Every structure is written in C-alpha cells, then in structure tokens.
User: What shape does this take?
Amino acid sequence: MTDGIAAITARIAELRTRLGQAAPAASTSASGAAFAAKLESARAATSAAPATAPASTTHAHESSPVTGRSKLTGRMRGLINEVDQRFGPFPTIGGWRSDGGIAGGGEHPLGRAADFMLSSGGAMPSAAQRAKGREIAEWITDNADRLGVKYVIYDQKIWNPSRAAEGWRPMENRGSVTQNHYDHIHVSVN
Ligand SMILES: [Zn+2]
Assistant: This one.
C-alpha cells in the first residue's frame, strides 16, 4: 500500500510538472492547482477504497427504507443491500414484522424475509414497474444459491430452489393486489 501511495504521489508530481509546462502562462496557476486538488482527492479515494468494490453494474443512491432492519439476519440484510444497490430505490422494503400474515407465521417474524415494494398503498404497479419486478425476481432466482434463497413469490407465482425445474408455479387467489404479490417481490432466505 505504501508503495502504491508513493507511486501515485510521484505520478501527481509528474503531472503537475507537465501541466505547468504545457498550460498557457496566465492560467497555469489556477488550473494547475485545481487539477492537483482533483488528483489529491482521487488519491484519497483510492486509499480508502474497500478491498471488495461493488460490481460495476450497480448504481449509487440513498438506501431504501427497510422496516425492522435491526431484527433481520445477516444473510437477509446482505440480500437486501445487494438488490437495493442494483435495482433500487424502492418506496419501502418490508423486513421484520411480528405478524407474518400467513399460516405458520412465515419468515418475516424470523427476520428472514423481505418485501421489495414496486408501488405504494396497494395500487397495481404500472407496466414498467411490473417489468422491473419480473427482472428483479428473475435476478434473485438466478442468484438463489449464492444468496441462500428459500423461496420467492411475485405476480401470484412462487419459485423454490428445490423445485426450480418446475419454474414459477401459479398460486391461489388470496384477494388483494398485495396479498397476490402483484405489488412486491417477497423473498425468504434460509
Ligand atoms: Zn413478504
């Protein structure tokens, strides 16, 4: 690391010299200083960069609000962070809650489930939002092994790793847009 910083410092000195020689006399001082400042901040960013940088396809934005985040398992938080970075922001991400809303309780009260909301207030999502929902659901199933996925529900269909050969299986009508998972992707992890 020290060698890397020394190399960058040498490079900055070299660029400063070159810029000083190449730029017109009148603007040398100001533009040279600005350029040097940019290089300094780039150098700082390089030094502070984590060992595992996020994939280049991710985009930066504020993290979506997650309900009950502190009661989620590490694996669930990891999946949420990854999906949020890649596809967010979401209106909200439903995490832990005491009432799972299904027989047996499901995984929400265990901190092992998340609902990625595509729309708010129980409204049917737009065609564009639904297309995005399909993209997210497919990405989660494509990465199910790595993410430790137990099952995924979206668009009134369910997908289990253990029954992956059957693909997305239709579910019974539970009544509402939300209960039928038209407006969110539900993910449970092991
Ligand atoms: Zn859910």
About this structure: The pocket of zinc ion is lined by residues 108, 113, 115, 186 (CB under 6 Å). Strands lie at 66-67, 93-94, 113-117, 149-154, 157-159, 169-170, 184-189.
